[in-house]
Amino acid sequence: MDVSQQPLVRLEGVEKSFQRGSEQIHVLANLSLQVGRGEFLALMGPSGSGKSTLLNLVGGLDRPTAGAVEIDGERIDQLSERQLAAWRARHVGLVFQFYNLLPMLNAERNVELPLLLTHLSRGERREHVRVALEVVGLSHRTRHYPRTLSGGEQQRVGIARAIVNDPTLLLCDEPTGDLDRKTGDEILTLLQALNRDQGKTIIMVTHDPHASARATRTLYLEKGQFSTEKPE
Amino acid sequence: MISWLNQILSVTLFSLRTIPERKGSAFSAAIGIAGVVAVLVGVLSIAEGFRAAMSVPPNQHVAIVLRSGADSEMTSGLSREETRLIGLAPGIHEGPNGPMASSELFVMINLPKKSTGTDANVPMRGVEKEAAAVRGDLRVIQGRMFESGRSEIIVGAGAARAFSGLDVGQTLRVGANEWKVVGIFSGGGGAAESEIWTDAAVLQPAYNREDSFQSVYARLETEGAFQKFKDALSTNPQLKVRTLLQSDFLAEQSSILTGFIETIGMSIAGLMALGALFGALNTMYTVVASRSREIATLRALGFGASPVVISVLFESLLIALLGGSIGAAAAYGAFDGFQAATINWQSFSQIAFAFAVTPKLLVMAIVWAAVIGIIGGLFPALRAARLPVAIALRET
After folding, report:
1. How far is residue B56 from each of residues A90, B59, B61, B86, B149, measured CA to CA in Å?
2. What is the mean predicted confidence (pLDDT) over B109-125?
3. Region A191-213: what's the mean pLDDT?
4. ipTM
5. Cβ of A81: how many Cβ atoms within 10 Å?
6. For A157-186, how does the pLDDT look when each residue is reduced to its tens digit (9 = 90+)?
7. pLDDT tens column, B224-242
8. Nearest residue in chain B measured CA to CA from A119
9. Nearest beta carbon to residue A102 from set B14, B305, B389
10. Which of A53, A87, A102 sits opposite B297 (nearest CB)?
11. A65 vs B36, higher pLDDT
């Protein structure tokens, strides 16, 4: 089978549980999932359903208790911490609900962060940063610090940081959760454009049906299991 | 490797740029460490000063001869015949007036301390005319040298500073005589500056010592000549003596007091260091807690755990070094050169000395501060490295 035909993300029998005191909390139970290249998948579900946990497993920020997590043919659940960190730097772009920008760095320097882990020269890094900020429409705010940017602008910087090293996969955890409807729409339009025009595979966790409507596919999670129907 | 170093540099710089946001806690940790260092340096500067007062310049090859079994000049005794034989031994530097050796006796007199007005023991030394030449660096800095056969004294600069009645021109009554202060001297090696000197031939009858002495000071031809000199004395059946280099003798004489001060200093500073360590730990735990989302973000983007550990350690070290420098500077300003006099328990005489904040002490202060900084930063750094990224990322 042609590699491009293979799913980019493949989860097989994934389980995740936490120990809280003497109690074992099962967050994900025997979950399997495939996400094709170029898909824009929305993950929905009530709080505590395991959406973010699933996203963390796909992004290599957490490990499953059991099962396999394979991204682009590589079993990331078998990588060491160090290998996983390096893998994240190469393959994943992360977009957070609260932007997670470093307050002491301006927009340009925040976007440059993932590139510090590469062997690019300073000049090459600058060029990548310029392009990324242009893509998100923030070329005029490059020297601004997070505290001087609006929520929408901060999220654009967050998206620019996520795409600056051209990752395989873009993972967004409630990217519009902290924004008003209009600004949220602008961010979703940007994500849609990245998916449509640049072929980025996106997995987005959201509570908002308005946001999930922009995705090419929506999955619902409830009590750690996929359900075919949108829960009531 | 380059990427790893780049990571360390970047994460450390990010971390340092956030220090102004928490200058209060950083400053209080630094001040805690400054206190430790100031106390450590302050106490140890007493020992350093005392040791310096009880030392001789490095190129002064002077030997001291005591009666066998004596551990200080106070407990020694030598007859004129014995001192004559000692003066004839090989290895002594030959001066224009013959072998450079001085037979000396040593008595304690009581004088009031300028600082408290209470009486204290001051050593008064009877010397022969070669005494100054034997020591090499003795200089009369005020007045003149005493004249042989007269009840005249010269006073060490340290003793003149510490005790009353020792200004040039003053007279003091000790023993059977009245003594006129005719000069102040400096140098002389060792504790000489804390002493009063006069002609041995005048001091002997004043204290009914007949024709006996307590020690012979001899200037050696070279440092290597000491063994020859010592062997000659120990193999002479007419002599039962103990021969030492003056530097070794002085180190021996000051060992109890310097050892005591160092033990006290280290103990106090050690206890304070424990307190400062908890201060540094607290500060750095707060730093890690307040920056956990930033740290988690960096880790999520692919930055390794070790750059995070190193950045926290570096920040802690920097705060500690700042504290250490403040403490060392404060100790230097407050203590260096501070004049004092204390009793030397091995001779029961007062030694005048100045606190000495030496480069060695300053280096030690910085090392202590660095150790506090590294230990204080280590556990918080490890906590930062083990931060569960997925959980910390969601913290607002």
Report:
1. 68, 8, 9, 22, 29
2. 87
3. 93
4. 0.92
5. 14
6. 999 999 999 998 999 999 998 899 999 999
7. 899 999 999 999 999 999 9
8. B3
9. B14
10. A102
11. A65
Q: How is residue B25 written in tokens?
A: 């806690």
User: Which one of B287, B389, B396 would you mutate to disrupt binding with A, by most A Cβ within 10 Å of its Cβ?
Assistant: B389
Interchain proximity A85–B302, CB inside 8 Å: yes
- Token pair of B222 as six digits: 């070279």
Average pLDDT of the residues of chain B: 86
Q: Which of B3, B10, B293 sits opposite A100 (nearest CB)?
A: B293
Using CB atoms, pick whichever of A62, A88, A105 lies closest to residue B302: A88
* Coil vs helix vs strand at A148: helix
Identify the residue whose tokens are 């000790």. B174
CA distance A1 to chain B (A): 31
Start-end of H helices in A39-80: 51-58
Domains of chain A: 37-63+78-226 (3.40.50.300)
At residue B1 the predicted structure's pLDDT band, cuts being 50, 70 and 90, is: low
Give the best-scoring range by mean pLDDT among B54-58, B75-79, B303-307.
B75-79
In the predicted model, is pLDDT for residue A194 greater than 90?
yes
Chain A residues closer than 8 Å to B304 by CB: 82, 85
Q: How far is the C-alpha of B370 from the C-alpha of B356, rounded, in Å?
A: 22
Cβ contact, residue pair B298, A119, below 8 Å: no
* B332/B258 Cα distance (integer angstroms): 19
A119: chain B residues, CB-CB within 8 Å: 2-3
Nearest to B29 by CA among B310, B376, B378, B384: B376
Alpha-carbon Rg for chain B, nearest whole angstrom, is 30
CA torsion sign for A135, A139, A144, A150 is: negative
Prediction pTM value:
0.69
- Collect all residues of chain B within an 8 Å Cβ-Cβ radius of residue A87: 302
Judged against a pLDDT cut of 70, whether residue B59 lies above it is answered with: no
Query: What does the pLDDT read at residue B13?
Result: 85
